[in-house]
């Protein structure tokens, strides 16, 4: 059927048809378009706007197409889009009366509805997989509450922590990614159907009926906004850009930790490759590719925002060009989420190397300064200066942390302040011992096993509650 035959005597040429066609990416909304038409036709019949017998014929044809799948449609570019391909299919079965299915409906509100129907399912799938990732991080962290590693600031040794504490940082990043998508879902799950082209319709349609049939939370209350709003797409792609940013940071650390210089982990062979010329190499290819694909999401987000930025209300054909960037971004983000998940749970951890790094380079110096403040009541800045000199002199004289004693510190303290500290050697050693150092950080959010277990417990509750939430949506 040539949609333009009424207004335009001569249709588009073949190149223009292909150039303006959306069929290549309309496959994503095939099932949603059937659902949209079923809901709308059902509502039209219930409201007495179209004949019930005709409606039943249309609905039967739509359900037949649902079973046969998208290959039953003529996807020639001359058809222009999935909506017309679907209507042509129904027309072949029902005849001209199939045209009643488009009563009080425009492709403008139809495509807006389809996009929301598909995107909300994609969001829920990604949310489910984020929860699975967090669950596995919880399991891995539970096994390593006593595995000591060194933490970094400025990529320099900072303070000792545990692998569990570090993994939980990943988990809480992902928790926020999940929560962003959960919040965005509320703005996706609003029904534009009934907005028609831009000003609704003079037919007495019932928007609550289609809203309920399609499972939306509500309908959009301004028809101009209904057909033109695509901010929910930009918001989703931002959420996913933030998600892959966090995944990229994880990949960066896995890459660093797997180097010979760090030797903290080994990435499984399943997520690695070797060199074409250097036989000894084991390259973290999956982590590197995941890190690189993060930029694809940034590109999709900027493209979407650039298309939107100068469009007048209401519907403009430019909006069609947003759709492929949406699906590309969703697919890249979801694939990256799952591959990074699989990769991180496959790593082998070198616990001895973790402890070795934590003992090196005086990562425990902050606690020595803290304990000087507690014991002697001197300002932290003074203690900071003393301990800073202790570290400098120890490095120059090649003195290990466990060889530092009260005499060594008193000499430096007297030189800087004119007073000796006379600290017990046991206090000095406990302050500089990584394991004791971690145990002392018994503050919520800290790395002590007790605090990590508390954090794990809270995250487990979060997982249980959110699984119930998702189950309620699906039911």
The Cα radius of gyration reads: 31 Å
Secondary-structure class: mainly alpha
> Roughly how much helix do the residues carry, as a percent range?
55-70%
Low-confidence stretches: none
At the fold tier of CATH, the topology name of the largest domain is Fumarase C, Chain A, domain 2
Major beta-sheet overview: 2 strands, antiparallel
- Taking all residues together, what is the mean pLDDT? 93
Topology of helices and strands:
Blueprint: H1 14-20, H2 23-26, H3 30-46, H4 52-68, H5 82-94, H6 107-142, E1 148-153, E2 156-162, H7 163-188, E3 190-191, H8 207-214, E4 218-219, H9 223-228, H10 231-257, E5 265-266, H11 285-308, H12 323-344, E6 348-349, H13 351-359, H14 365-376, H15 380-396, H16 406-417, H17 425-432, H18 434-440, H19 449-474
Structural description of this entry:
The chain folds into 3 domains: about 15-105, Fumarase/aspartase (N-terminal domain) (Fumarase C, Chain B, domain 1), CATH 1.10.275; about 110-195 and about 220-355 and about 465-475, Fumarase/aspartase (Central domain) (Fumarase C, Chain A, domain 2, Up-down Bundle), CATH 1.20.200; about 365-430, Ribonucleotide Reductase Protein R1, domain 1, CATH 1.10.40. About 65% of the residues lie in helices and about 5% in strands. The chain contains 19 helices and 6 strands. The longest helix is centred in the first third of the chain and has 36 residues, at about 105-140. The mean pLDDT is about 95.
């Amino acid at each position: 059927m040539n949609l333009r035959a009424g207004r335009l005597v001569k249709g588009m040429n073949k190149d223009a048809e292909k150039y303006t066609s959306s069929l290549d990416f309309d496959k994503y909304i095939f099932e949603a378009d059937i659902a949209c038409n079923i809901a709308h036709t059902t509502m039209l019949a219930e409201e007495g706007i179209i004949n019930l017998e005709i409606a039943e014929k249309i609905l039967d044809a739509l359900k037949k197409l649902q079973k046969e799948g998208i290959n039953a449609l003529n996807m020639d570019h001359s058809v222009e889009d999935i909506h017309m391909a679907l209507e042509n299919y129904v027309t072949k079965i029902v005849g001209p009366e199939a045209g009643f299915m488009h009563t009080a409906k425009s492709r403008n509100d139809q495509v807006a509805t389809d996009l929301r129907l598909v995107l909300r399912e994609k969001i829920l799938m990604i949310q489910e997989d984020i929860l699975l990732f967090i669950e596995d991080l919880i399991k891995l962290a539970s096994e390593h509450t006593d595995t000591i590693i060194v933490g970094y600031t400025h990529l320099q040794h900072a303070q000792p922590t545990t692998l569990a504490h570090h993994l939980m940082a990943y988990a809480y990043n992902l928790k926020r990614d999940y929560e962003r998508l959960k919040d965005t879902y509320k703005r996706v799950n609003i029904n534009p159907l009934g907005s028609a082209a831009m000003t609704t319709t003079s037919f007495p349609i019932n928007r609550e009926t289609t809203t309920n049939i399609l499972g939306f939370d509500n309908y959009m209350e301004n028809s101009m906004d209904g057909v033109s709003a695509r901010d929910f797409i930009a918001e989703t792609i931002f959420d996913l850009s933030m998600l892959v940013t966090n995944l990229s940071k994880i990949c960066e650390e896995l890459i660093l930790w797997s180097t010979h210089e760090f030797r903290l982990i080994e990435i499984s062979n399943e997520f690695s490759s070797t060199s074409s010329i250097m036989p000894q190499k084991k390259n973290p290819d999956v982590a590197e590719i995941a890190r690189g694909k993060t930029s694809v999401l940034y590109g999709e987000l900027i493209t979407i925002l650039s298309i939107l930025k100068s469009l007048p209300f209401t519907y403009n054909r430019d909006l069609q060009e947003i759709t492929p960037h949406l699906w590309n971004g969703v697919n890249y983000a979801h694939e990256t989420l799952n591959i990074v998940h699989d990769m991180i749970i496959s790593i082998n951890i070198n616990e001895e190397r973790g402890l070795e790094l934590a003992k090196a380079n005086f990562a425990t110096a902050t606690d020595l300064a803290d304990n000087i403040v507690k014991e002697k009541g001197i300002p932290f800045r003074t203690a900071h200066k003393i301990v800073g000199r202790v570290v400098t002199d120890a490095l120059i004289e090649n003195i290990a942390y466990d060889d530092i004693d009260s005499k060594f510190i008193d000499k430096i303290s007297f030189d800087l302040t004119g007073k000796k500290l006379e600290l017990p050697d046991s206090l000095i050693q406990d302050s500089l011992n990584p394991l004791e150092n971690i145990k002392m950080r018994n503050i919520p959010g800290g790395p002590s096993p007790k605090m990590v277990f508390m954090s794990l417990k809270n995250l487990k509750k979060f997982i249980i509650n959110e699984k119930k939430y998702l189950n309620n949506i699906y039911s």
